[in-house]
Structure formats: structure tokens, C-alpha cells
Write a structure and sequence with these properties.
The protein contains 16 helices and 17 strands. It is α/β, with parallel strands linked by helices. It has a six-stranded mixed β-sheet, sandwiched between helices. It has a six-stranded mixed β-sheet with strand order 13-14-15-12-16-17, with helices on both faces. A three-stranded antiparallel β-sheet has the order 2-1-4, covered by helices on one side. Helix 5 (103-113) crosses helix 6 (131-144) and helix 9 packs antiparallel against helix 10. It is globular.
Length: 511
């Protein structure tokens, strides 16, 4: 069993408390999902539980991690450039358990992960594997070590829908405890039976940790009901307090007035009024003590807040947005698909799905190249790799307010604040921010530019399960055209008016 007791994690640079007082225990059958906004310490907690040395350069911690004798399997969120460049067989050799494994062991983990066993000896670079192949390969290598607990940081990133469904079954079938981070709400709803929620309240200055032994959907529902009941009780107590205080002030003012006007020739009445004022003041102090014991108004980490201008971003119904016909879609010398035909009219919202490696991002880039130069519409492109657009040392404020005018800078700061940027993050080079913060920045730039055609590659992949519903609602209400690639099943259901599957023979209606 993995036990964590009163864990507190503090960032060394600015002494920010990322996590405070976190305690939980995991045993066989537990599938614990760590949720919360970016920057709340989720990945740091997983790294710390695996190996404190991984966080030592930037964070310090107190508390107790009871894991003596446990073999831990850790899946990092990203591979390093050096790891991505290695041939697959050389990457596998970097795991000691792989070198000691016999054919039966390799066959066992290949079957557990649905992996083609021949991939272990592949000479291709790891970077050329699909997202699903990479995750399955890394999980297989972890399972060779026969871990007692699995720590998985965003295993659902970059997976197509079929592989996401496989991952759900893998998690449900795990016999060892699993602690994992994911932004995929469908996966959370179908697999998690423990929720570890990390929050930062009061403008990200106060940390709160909540551990609930229930599924994700029930947790969200129960949390909302609990907050609603708490708010109702708090408002009732405050209304009753206001009535009491109004009565108190009226009595206090009356007695104070009588004291001010009592005649010096009537000292007896003056003494009685002073005694009465003493009683009134005691009543006021009692009310103040009652105020301290009142139910607090509920606090939660507010979701991001932004919206498109409904007038500026509107796209006329029936107007042609795109007429794209490609005899062949290729990546380098490799043909990905043939006979592609993508016709889009306003204000359609198109979602494109398909297996990893099918060429969805390549197609979307081609769509962006077609739309961005046009002057009869205002197109904006959000690639999967934000580094394609956010380069150099420019800060978020400079990117959103390139004019430098005071009003533009003020508006940019206000919008960034609504997206939960801290003041210091607004002045950091945008290229160095987290994936979630960069996603928010690109989203804001589309809002400010008044785009009426959005070309979006995995628009929700870096938004937390708490923020993603807001993004989906904003995009569902967007009055323009959306052409997107997504594996987010809720996004496809709630935002898209038409979903197409990219196949080798073209785009087909997806069921």
C-alpha cells in the first residue's frame, strides 16, 4: 500500500505553496485520478512519489511518504528529445528489466498492452511511432518491472479514440493501485474510483486538497451539491445576522441619543442609560462572536472566463468557408490518404477523427494554409505544437497587446487574469510557459483578433477537466466556423455539428 501523510510541497523560487496537507492511501483496485488546474502541482506530486530527486531542483517538501519496499512504475508526461531520437530497440535497452526479460515476459506484457511484440526490436526512431504505440511501449516496459503501483502522468495525451478505449480497459483491469493524471473527462468518468483534487484558491495563494473515494462524475455532482447547500446555509445565516445587527444599531443609536440629551438634573436616569448602553454593547460583542462562527461561503477555483464577440465572430449561414479537394495527402514521401474532399459552409463546426498517424494534423495544417491568407474571412490557427506560433522572448502581454498602448495592455492583462494567469506569468516569455498556459494564450489571441473561422488541432487537450467544460461551451456558442481535430469525445458530442473520419481513401462520416 502507498501512503501519503500531510504532504506539503513548496516552490523554491517564489515560496509558493503548491500542495498543502495532502493525505491518502492507495491499495489494490484503487484507480486514483489527480485533477486540478495547470500549475497546481499534479505532475510534481507524481514525480515526488516516484523519486524526490526529480523535484529537488525546484521544490521542497515536508510530510511522510510510506513506500518502503514498493516497486513503482512511473510514466513521465513527455519523453526527452534524446529519447525520442533513439531507435526503439535502443530505447528499450535503457530499461534494466528489458535486458533481463525472457521471451515469456515480453509476450506477457505485449498481450497486457495490446502491443505487437516485434515493436521491441524496431529500428525506427521512437519519434516516428504513433502516440498510441509510444504509450503502449512505455507501459509494457514498466510492466516488465512488475511494479506494485503505477504513477502515470497524462497517459491519455495524443491517443486516438480507439487507443483511449483500450487505455480505459487497461486501467480497469489493473491489479495494482494506479495514480494518474488525465484531462480526458470520459476516461476519468469510466475509470477513476478515487479523486485527488488539488486547488489553489484566493488568487492562487491558498492551497486545498480534497480526496474522495468515488467516481469522477459523482464527485463533481456531490461537490456542486455540497457547495450549493453550504452557500444556502451561509446566506441564511448572514441574512439573520443582518436583521440582528439592524436591531442592534437601532437600539444603540436610540440609547446613545438619550444619553446625549439627558439632563444633568436627572443623574438617576443617566445611570440607568449607561447601564443599558453597557448591555447593548455586550449584545453587539455577542453578535460579533456569532459572526465568527457563521458558515463560511464556499470557495472553489473558478473556471477560466472568456467568450467570443457574437457580432464580430459571426459567419453568414450558407456562405462558403472552404472548398478543399486533394488528390493525395502526404507526409514527406509517404502517402497518408487519397481523394480528400472537405467542403465547409457557415456556420458549421467540423470535427475530424482517425487513428494516430492517419494524417489529421497534416490535413489541418493544409486547411490553415488555405484559409489564413484569405481576406474575405478572419481565420485563426491553433496547432497541436504551440511552439510553432509562440517563439522568442515575447511575453503573453506583448503577444496580446503588440501596440503597447495603455488601453490594449490593460485589456490584455484583464483577459489573462480571467484565464487565471498570475501577474508574474504575464511577464514570462510565452514559449517557456506550461502547455495549458500557452493553450489559454492562443485561445485569447483568437478572441482578441475577432476570428470567425477557427482551425483547431486538439483544442481541449491541455485544459483541465475543470476548465474544459467552459471551453466546450464557448466553442459550442461560437457563431463562426470551426474545423478541428479532436479525440475529446465530449467535445465531438457537444461542439461539433458534423464529425468526419480520416481514412486512407478519404474523409467519411463518422458514427
Amino acid at each position: 500500500m502507498l501512503q501519503v501523510k500531510n504532504l506539503t510541497v513548496t516552490h523554491k523560487k517564489d515560496l509558493t505553496t503548491l500542495v498543502e496537507g495532502l493525505s491518502f492511501a492507495l491499495g489494490p483496485g484503487d484507480r486514483a485520478a489527480v485533477v486540478g488546474e495547470e500549475g497546481n502541482g499534479k505532475s510534481t506530486v507524481l514525480k515526488l512519489l516516484y523519486d524526490p530527486a526529480l523535484v529537488e531542483p525546484y521544490a521542497e517538501w515536508t510530510g511522510e511518504i510510506a513506500d518502503r519496499g514498493l516497486r513503482k512504475g512511473y510514466l513521465a508526461q513527455e519523453l526527452s528529445p534524446a529519447e525520442l531520437a533513439r531507435p526503439v530497440w535502443a530505447f528499450c535497452q535503457g530499461f534494466p528489466a528489458f535486458g533481463n526479460a525472457d521471451p515469456k515476459d515480453l509476450d506477457r506484457v505485449a498481450r497486457q498492452t495490446g502491443l505487437d511484440g516485434g515493436l521491441f526490436w524496431d529500428g525506427r526512431a521512437v519519434s516516428t511511432l504513433s502516440g498510441g504505440e509510444r504509450v503502449k511501449l512505455r507501459l509494457a516496459l514498466l510492466l516488465l518491472e512488475r511494479p506494485d503501483v503505477l504513477l502515470l502522468d497524462e497517459p491519455s495525451n495524443d491517443l486516438d479514440i480507439r487507443t483511449l478505449e483500450w487505455l480505459e480497459q487497461f486501467l480497469l483491469g489493473c491489479k495494482v493501485p494506479v495514480l494518474y493524471i488525465s484531462h480526458d473527462e470520459t476516461l476519468l468518468e469510466r475509470t477513476a474510483n478515487v479523486i485527488v483534487h488539488l486547488e489553489r484558491l484566493r488568487r492562487r495563494t491558498v492551497s486545498r486538497c480534497t480526496v474522495s473515494r468515488m467516481g469522477y462524475a459523482r464527485y463533481v455532482e456531490q461537490r456542486g451539491l455540497r457547495f450549493a447547500r453550504q452557500e444556502q446555509k451561509a446566506r441564511k445565516e448572514r441574512a439573520e445576522y443582518d436583521v440582528k445587527m439592524e436591531t442592534y444599531r437601532r437600539i444603540h443609536d436610540s440609547v446613545e441619543h438619550q444619553l446625549a440629551t439627558v439632563s444633568r438634573q436627572n443623574p438617576g436616569k443617566g445611570r440607568l442609560l449607561k447601564k443599558k448602553m453597557h448591555t447593548v454593547l455586550s449584545m453587539g460583542r455577542r453578535f460579533e462572536r456569532e459572526k465568527e462562527d457563521m458558515t463560511a461561503m464556499p470557495e472553489w477555483e473558478e473556471a477560466i472566463l472568456t467568450a467570443f464577440d457574437q457580432g464580430k465572430s459571426a459567419f453568414p449561414a450558407g456562405k462558403t468557408a472552404l472548398r478543399l479537394e486533394l488528390p493525395e495527402l502526404a507526409a514527406g514521401d509517404r502517402a497518408l490518404a487519397r481523394n480528400l474532399r472537405l467542403w465547409v459552409d457557415g456556420p458549421e463546426k467540423i470535427g475530424i477523427v482517425g487513428p494516430n498517424g492517419a494524417g489529421k494534423s497534416t490535413l489541418l495544417k493544409r486547411v490553415a494554409e488555405e484559409l489564413l491568407p484569405r481576406t474575405d474571412l478572419r481565420a485563426a490557427y491553433m496547432p497541436q505544437d504551440y511552439g510553432d506560433l509562440l517563439v522568442g522572448e515575447r511575453t503573453p502581454v506583448e503577444l496580446l497587446a503588440p501596440s503597447g498602448h495603455r488601453d490594449d495592455v490593460t485589456r490584455a492583462r484583464t483577459l489573462l487574469g480571467n484565464m487565471k494567469y498570475k501577474a508574474e506569468e504575464m511577464e514570462h516569455p510565452a514559449a517557456g510557459l506550461s502547455g495549458g498556459q500557452r493553450a489559454k494564450l492562443l485561445f485569447l489571441s483568437m478572441v482578441l483578433n475577432g476570428a470567425n473561422v477557427l482551425v483547431l488541432d486538439e483544442p481541449t487537450r491541455n485544459f483541465s477537466p475543470m476548465s474544459a467544460p467552459v471551453i466546450r461551451q464557448v466553442l459550442a456558442e461560437f457563431p463562426g466556423v470551426i474545423i478541428s481535430v479532436s479525440h475529446d469525445r465530449l467535445y465531438l458530442d457537444q461542439v461539433c455539428t458534423r464529425v468526419l473520419e480520416l481514412t486512407e481513401t478519404g474523409l467519411k462520416e463518422w458514427m
